[in-house]
Specification:
By secondary structure, the chain is an all-alpha fold. Helix content is about 70%, strand content about 0%. Helix 1 (about 1-25) packs antiparallel against helix 3 (about 45-60) and helix 1 packs across helix 4 (about 80-100). The radius of gyration is 14 Å and the shape is globular. Bound molecules: zinc ion.
């Protein structure tokens, strides 16, 4: 089904955008030290993007539009999950204003899901 794939493709684009946003807002010192400019990210965030995209690629629920990489908590190792969580908290709200074309319900669903699952999952 076309729709299923589209939401997955969308997320693939969404991840780097959110992480870049987060990096710009939170890693000013690192960015400066590494000479990072524009829509580039610091090495830590670059790693996170790569990891998230890799996980997304491997996600067994890829075809299920209701479950995405951010919901599939099992596939993130704790360190990366915490980073992604921080990105979500930071960029999630800002996304609503700066990228209205992206599926808002998706982002909201994701955050809600994160909250409902809490930190209990290892
Ligand atoms: Zn960064």
């Amino acid at each position: 089904m076309k729709n299923e794939l589209r939401s997955w493709e969308k997320e693939k684009k969404l991840i780097p955008i959110m992480i870049i946003m987060y990096c710009k807002g939170n890693h000013k010192i690192e960015r400066k030290r590494q000479g990072v400019k524009g829509n580039d990210t610091c090495t830590e965030c670059k790693e996170l993007i790569e990891y998230a995209l890799f996980r997304l690629e491997k996600c067994p629920f890829k075809k299920n539009k209701k479950i995405c990489s951010f919901c599939n908590v099992h596939c993130y190792k704790p360190e990366m999950r915490n980073k992604v969580k921080a990105v979500m908290n930071y960029a999630g709200i800002r996304m609503l204003f700066s990228h209205p074309l992206f599926s808002l319900s998706h982002v909201i669903q994701m955050i809600k899901h994160k909250k409902s699952k809490g930190d209990k999952i290892k």
